Structure prediction request, 428 residues.
Amino acid sequence: MINQPSPQDFSDLLDWRSLKSARTELLPEHFQQAARLSKLIYLPQQRWQVYLSALAVLGFEQWLKERAPDLHIQTDSASIWQPAYANLLAVAYNIRVGDFKICLITSSNLTDQHSVPFAAFDIPDFAAHFYVLMQVEEEEQQVAVSSFMNYEQYDRYQTAAGLEIDADWTYTLPSTWFNPDSDALLLNLRCLQADAIKLPTLSQTTQNNTVFALRQKLINLISQLKNKYIWQVLTVKEGTILLSNPDLVNLAYKGVSAASVQPLINVGLWLRDRIDGLAQELGWMLMPLPVLSGMRSLQDEFDQIRAGLEQQGVHIPPTARGAYRDLESEQGSVRMYVIMWVLSETTEKPEWMLLVALGSQPQAQMPKTLKLEVRDEAQILFGESLQGTSQGILYAQVIGDLDEKFWVTVTADDAVFEIPPFGLELEK
Prediction:
């Protein structure tokens, strides 16, 4: 599982027990699959919602198989499993139950209104026979079918209410539009014919010159799309054209993905007492083996760090290799040590250890405060601060698969140092 950025205690705010018949248990492999997907989402703000949406799909599939094994469900083609679309819409459409198209929307019962992307209703390719609100309780390892609505009901409500599209490309729908009876959903899926619910028909093809103009605009916006939602840079009309055109959706995703690729510091070379060009340019220096084995040929400072780590139960094995770099700022200087070693190469899933420690430079003033953060592609793995740099050692220790990368950020008082990712690429 990955950690929610701002976890909340829902127990006092909703009657989770009232959804008992609509609940199902999530399996460990569900969390693994959702986490793998979230790593492919380049927009950090979007990752958590995509993660929850993936859990909602897996939980809904599990729930339906338990409650109605006679109904055939297909989720492989759901939009949420396509990173190019998931980057833009954290909902799951194109799920099939028999002849019915289902759209799953992750929601919370804490409010009486729900935000649903306009595209789920207004773009014919995305429209569904049933829109199902799913409640995901990650800490409880459960999901629940909260309520549902069919397309014709939405159409009637919308005609009467005349809802406008919000700035974030969503409609705000009242919970009263949805039916909270999950058994009624099963009854509809079993007894109703799909053609009894009329879906919107495909509109005319957008003219080539309009698509070309949007393509050029997307190319010029690639750098902004790395950290902005698509609705922050395009109009609703442009968004409709974009989402209706798979080539444009893939262009946006591939362009940002390519622009987001960072060269990595290959710690695999350290195992052969070598260092790559990027590390050399940034001022990294390999640590001689005697230092790692305990001899004082580099600096007394690392001996003190190693001794402090050992007191806290962190043992650096003889097979470890490392490098260091000085981080200079007006407020003070700090020496950053990075040590790595392979835990086991014989297991089915070999892993490696990355140890990051911050120490002082000889004859240099330390910053008053330090903060160390380590993250992978999906989440922050470690984040701690040291208010008094003379009070202890600030270090982080993370384990990853051989194909995992880790990003390190060091904040020294007001100076922020973003370190390129560390990765282990073994030469064949």
About this structure: The domain at 16-196 is CATH 3.40.1350 (Trna Endonuclease; Chain: A, domain 1). The chain has a mean pLDDT of 85. The two ends are 33 Å apart (CA to CA). The first strand starts at residue 23 and ends at 25.
